[in-house]
Amino acid sequence: MRMTIVQVFVWFFICVDMLMLFTFFSKQAFRSDARYILFAHTLMADCLLLLLTDLVVLLGYFTVLLPVGRCIVLCILMGIVVKNTPYTITAMCLERYVAICMPLRHASISTTGRTMAAIAVVWACSSVRAFMDLIIVTVTAPPEYFDRPASCHYEIVLVAGWHNLMYAILNQMEFGIIVIIILFCYTKIMLAARSASSESKESASKGRRTLLFHSLQLILCMADLWVPFIAAAVKEQSISLFLHVRFINFIIITIISRALSPLIYGLRDKTFCLALKYYLSCKA
Asked: What is the dihedral sign for C-alpha 185, 188, 194, 199?
């Protein structure tokens, strides 16, 4: 029953994301707008993460154990994609800040070229920590460690105790920096809304609500990095409780947090929603 629920959720949201990606690539206006480009990038990253995590869930369900060396490759790829979403959310918040607080400079700042460069920076920042973890485990772990059969979870990369502690501390630092950036953007938008005209106030109000949605999505995404430590502590107490925690974590944090992207930018955006309805109705 649990596996059926997981598969229904995963493939439903993958289909929704793929439909929205089809809508994005079908309209030139979307492909040349910075916020829609970042939105499409988030959808692609979320689809990739859902596919990878679902693969790991299926391997665990059928009790398929892979050598640690192969699992590490899968875990590093998942680690990169997991970090990708919070960084992209931060870039989307900065884009909204520029659009509302610096409207005259928005067209020159949020160009297609600069947006693609920002996406490249997001991937670079997401990869630094994962490759650093890969180098550390390669240097510190004995050669026979990579031949052991294991379930694929990121903890197999964190062999040394100090490495595990460093991983947790760096996660908290990243989360703190991202929160500061989002609070800065939210405060600036609030101040801009007070001194704006009625039309600009409506835009600022919409941008403020979008940032609040992004904050919720960010908390869920970052919680995905904290839950393994909680689950490890629960596992020592009760295996049955650990299975419940892992299932709830996957449904609420891994899947639902990725489902917020279509809600925030897909269904709430009138222009995109109209285009989506157009293709859903077979261009009627």
From this structure: negative
